[in-house]
Write a structure and sequence with these properties.
Two copies of one chain form a homodimer.
Chain A lengths: L1 H12 L6 E3 L6 E3 L5 E11 L10 H19 L2 E11 L4 H15 L5 E9 L3 E11 L14 E5 L4 H12 L7 H11 L5 H7 L5 E4 L4 H12 L2 E5 L7 H18 L6 E5 L4 H10 L4 E8 L3 E5 L19
Parallel strand pairs in A: 4-5, 9-12
Antiparallel strand pairs in A: 1-2, 3-6, 4-6, 7-10, 7-11, 8-10, 9-11
Helix pairs in contact in A: 1-3, 2-3, 2-6, 4-5, 4-8, 5-8
C-alpha cells in the first residue's frame, strides 16, 4: 500500500529535473546540488485537530503542507527544488490521496518542486514535508543580521491568516470563498509563499523571517538572534480592507500583530535602502510596508496611533514579545 | 515550547560539522554538499501503536527513529551527514524529549550525524526523520542492477526483528535484555544500520536494499526494479541460534523470510565476486551469506531443504512474493 500511495502523489506532481538522479522507488533519492550553491532545507509537520480542522478539503491540505515549507525557503532567499513527504493516514483512502496530491502538485508545479521521496503510514492524519532549495554560496537570508536603525518591513498584509482561521471556525470548513470572508478563508486555505520576494531580498535585507507564529513572535525571533530590539507603530500595519470589514480595525490590528499563518515575510533593511527595496519588490508584484525600526535593547515594543506604548504583557501577549 | 524542545535535542546531539553553515534556529538550515558528491536522502515515519508499542522507552524510540533512516542510507552506500526531526508529542513532556534525544544522540554521534533542523508539534505520538548523506557522484547502490546469475546475499542474520517484536508483545516493553530473548529484544529496540557494509558494497554489489519489510518483500523490490526473478534456498538463510532457540527452526525460517525490521542489507553480486565481497565485509566485522541466485523471470521463489518449492501463495504470503 505505502508504495503505491506515494507513487500516486509522485505521478500527480510529475516533474522532471536534471538534478534528480534517482527519484522515488529506491531506498533513498539521489540528487545533485549545483556547483556554487548552498543547500537550504526545512521541515514542517501538520496534524489534524492541531494545524487544521477535521473535514478540511484534501487538496487544500496538500497545497498548505507544501506552502508552509516553501515559505521557510522564501525567508532564506532560496529557490525551491525538491520535497519529501511523510503522510500518515487513518486508512488507505485513495480519494483523499488523489485530492491531497492534486493540491500539492498545483503549488509544486509553478515552483518546479519535484517530489523525490516519501513514506505513507497508517495512523492519525498528519503530514511532514521536508523541502530543499538552493542559494548561491553565502547568500542565504538569516535572522541574525538586524542592526540598530534598520527599518522593519513586511510584505503584503498581515492578520488575514488568523482572521481566516476565525472565519473557518465560525463558517465551517466547507464555506464558500466569496466576498471579504472568502478572501480570508482563501488565505488560510491556500497561503502563498513569498518566494519571489525572498529572491529580491537576497543581498538587500539584513535579516528575514516568515510570519508563521505571528508578527510579534517572529520579529521577536529576529531580535533575539540579532541581539537587538524593535519598535513598531501599530497604525502602520498593512491590514487588508477585507480583514477590517469583517473584524473591525481593532481586532484586525490584534490579528496583524499576534495572529499566525500569514506566510508573509518580515525583514529588516538599512533605512537608506528601504525605498529601493520597495521598488524592487513592486516589480515582482509584491508590496512592502515599513512598520517600525530596529533599536538597541531587546524584545518588540508597539506604539498605538497616539504614540502610547501598548502594554503587551497586560494584554496577555507576554509570550509573543520575545 | 516547540523551539526549546527541538533545541534540547540539538543540544544533546551536539556535533559540529564544517558542512553545516547554519544549523537550527533559523527558518531553514544551510548546508554545503562536498564537491564531487551526490546527495542521498530518505524519510521514514514511526507512529505509536503502528510502528512501536505504547510505553516503549523514549531512548529506544530516539535510536530507532534515526536507525531506520540510516539503514536506507546504508542500502545506497552513502555516508550519513545530516538529519531533520519532526516530532509530534501529546504534550510537552520534557523527560520524554530528554530520553528521546539521548537515544537519538547515542546513534548519531558515532556516525557523525548532525541534527540541523526540526519541528515539534502537539498531537498523537509520532516522528518523522529525514536523513541526508553523500556518495561519490554516480556511485550510489540501487535496486535496479540485479542480473541473471548474480548471487543473492544478506548481511548478518535475518528474522530477529520479527522474533524480537513477538517477544516484545509477549514479555512487554519493559522486559530485560537478557539471554536469547534479550538478544531478540535488543535487536528490535536498537537495530544497527549496516553503514560500513554499504560502503564496502559500493562498486561491488549489482543491487542492494535494506530489509525493513521482510526479506521476500524487499528482494521482491529488487526483482521488480531489475526485471528479474530470484530463487532462494530456505536452508541457507542465516538464522541466529537465539532465534532458533526461542522459536524453533521452522518459525525462525518463517521470520527470516517474511518478518521485517531486520535492517540487514540484501544485495546481489556477480557470482565470481562473491567470495571477495565476503572477505571485504568480514574486514569491517560484517558477515554475509549467499542465500540464492538471480534468475530470468519475475518474483521470488523459495526451495526447502529437500529441494521442493515452497508454495508461498498457499502459505498466505502472496503479497510478499512480489
Amino acid at each position: 500500500m505505502e508504495f503505491s500511495l506515494i507513487d500516486r502523489i509522485g505521478a500527480a506532481t510529475q516533474l522532471r529535473r536534471d538534478d534528480v538522479l534517482l527519484g522515488m522507488g529506491d531506498d533513498a533519492a539521489v540528487l545533485q546540488v549545483p556547483a556554487g550553491q548552498n543547500l537550504v532545507m526545512a521541515v514542517d509537520t501538520m496534524v489534524e485537530g492541531v494545524h487544521f480542522l477535521p473535514g478540511t478539503a484534501p487538496a487544500d491540505l496538500g497545497w498548505k503542507a507544501l506552502a508552509v515549507n516553501l515559505s521557510d525557503l522564501a525567508a532564506m532567499g532560496a529557490v525551491p527544488a525538491w520535497a519529501l513527504l511523510a503522510l500518515t493516514l487513518p486508512k488507505g483512502d485513495a480519494s483523499f490521496v488523489d485530492g491531497f496530491a492534486a493540491g500539492f502538485a498545483e503549488l509544486a508545479r509553478p515552483h518546479r518542486v519535484a517530489l523525490v521521496g516519501g513514506d505513507t503510514t497508517g495512523g492519525p492524519l498528519a503530514f511532514s514535508v521536508t523541502v530543499h532549495g538552493f542559494v548561491p554560496a553565502g547568500a542565504a537570508l538569516t535572522r541574525d543580521g538586524a542592526r540598530e536603525g534598520d527599518l522593519v518591513m513586511v510584505t503584503g498584509s498581515v492578520g488575514e491568516g488568523a482572521g481566516g482561521l476565525a472565519c473557518l471556525r465560525q463558517h465551517g470548513v466547507l464555506a464558500q470563498d466569496e466576498g471579504a470572508i472568502g478572501q480570508l478563508l482563501s488565505r488560510v486555505r491556500r497561503p502563498r509563499p513569498q518566494l519571489a520576494a525572498g529572491l529580491v531580498l537576497r543581498g538587500q535585507a539584513s535579516s528575514c523571517i516568515d510570519i508563521s507564529d505571528g508578527l510579534l513572535a517572529d520579529l521577536g525571533h529576529i531580535c533575539q538572534r540579532s541581539g537587538v530590539g524593535a519598535e513598531l507603530d501599530a497604525d502602520r500595519l498593512p491590514l487588508s480592507d477585507a480583514l477590517q470589514t469583517v473584524f473591525g480595525p481593532e481586532q484586525a490590528c490584534l490579528y496583524g500583530l499576534s495572529g499566525g499563518d500569514d506566510y508573509e515575510l518580515c525583514f529588516t533593511v538599512p533605512a537608506a535602502r528601504a525605498h529601493a527595496v520597495q521598488g524592487d519588490l513592486a516589480r515582482v508584484g509584491c508590496s512592502a510596508t515599513p512598520i517600525g525600526r530596529i533599536v538597541r535593547g531587546e524584545g518588540v515594543s508597539v506604539r498605538d496611533a497616539r504614540g502610547q506604548w501598548i502594554d503587551l504583557h497586560s494584554a496577555g501577549w507576554d509570550h509573543f514579545a520575545a
